[in-house]
Each structure stands twice: as structure tokens, then as C-alpha cells.
Amino acid sequence: MFHDHFVACGWYTPDYTKWVSPLQQRLDTLGVPHDFVKVDKRPGGWEANTLAKPLHVRNAMERHPDKTILLLDVDCDVLCTRDDLASIADIEGDIGLYAKIKIRRSGKPVFGARSGTMVLRPTENARTLVTEWMKACNEATPFAVDQDILVAALGRVPQLSITILDIAACAVPQDNVASPLILHDSASLGSRTGKLAKLASRVWG
Questions:
Q1: How confident is the model at residue 79 (pLDDT cuts 50, 70, 90)?
Q2: For the whole model, what pTM was predicted?
Q3: What superfamily does domain 2-204 belong to in CATH?
């Protein structure tokens, strides 16, 4: 069955340890294989640490070269079944993520991608995307975060096939999703970027 072809992966710094155990216990209850790695915290604050995400994604893909990676930020609640997680991971594209497009009053679109829940299949294009994401993070300006840089990296991989996940797979409380499958906490809202994101959520609705 497809259940055997994906593994839930993630990474965390010591200050996020309290979120890991409940997530692991939930996945164990569901019978979902998982691989969450503790890493040292980088200097430079929360934003700088988010930029390490593509490096840890690459490492997860190397540890599980024949598996689809279901990437989860550890500050999330898995509220769905094993079958639901398998369905989220069962994408046709190289990668899967939730994205939102808002049209400004000027008529210009704003494209936002979330990396709290991502799916990466063991394809060459997915690996190339992660490499480009790493490169873009190394070029990032202060206070940039992984999700913003991910948007830039998406445009650097010709022929990349993207599956847009339902918002229920990557919901945050501000979304007011009636029945979220995976609900992400706002553990980062104490950071400068997190406070700005909270304000931005009022605009995005």
C-alpha cells in the first residue's frame, strides 16, 4: 500500500523540543513512520534558523532516498487519520505545498507559499528544487524566512511539477478552517517576522 512509501520528517532546535514528543506520539499512534532530527541552533535569531530548512530537507531525502518525504514543522497537531496523511503524500507532482494568491487593489498578484507541510517525492526535480532553495537561502537578506525564499526557488527549476495542497493540510489558527487535517501552531510569533506575519494575516484574511 502507499502507506509504506512515505515518511514524516522534520527538524528542530533545542527550544522546540517540547513540541516534538506529542507529534511523535501521535504519529506512532497512527502507525506513521517518522524521522525528526534535533540540530544545533544557528546564531541570528528565529529567521536565520528557518533558512536552514532546505538543508535539513536535503538531509532527510538522503536518509530516505526511495521514500516520499512528508515534511512537517514540529509545532503542529496532526488531527487526521493515517489514510489522510497518505492521501496528502500521494501527489502526482514533484512537490506539494499550500499556496495562496491574493490580488492587490493595484491588480498585481501576491503569491505566498507555506512550508509547514510539504511533500517531496524522490525525483530529480524535487532534489533540484531543494538545492536551489538552499542557494537562495544563502543569498537571503536579513529577516527573510524560508517560506519567502521558497517562492523564489520555485521559479528556478524548469519543468518542476507542483501539486497545490488543500489548506486543511497546512492550516494555522488564523485561517479558521472548520476541519483542519494538520494545524500548525504559531510558535514563532514572538520573532520580528512572526509579529509582522500576524499583522499580515489580517490583510490576507
A1: very high
A2: 0.86
A3: Spore Coat Polysaccharide Biosynthesis Protein SpsA; Chain A (3.90.550.10)
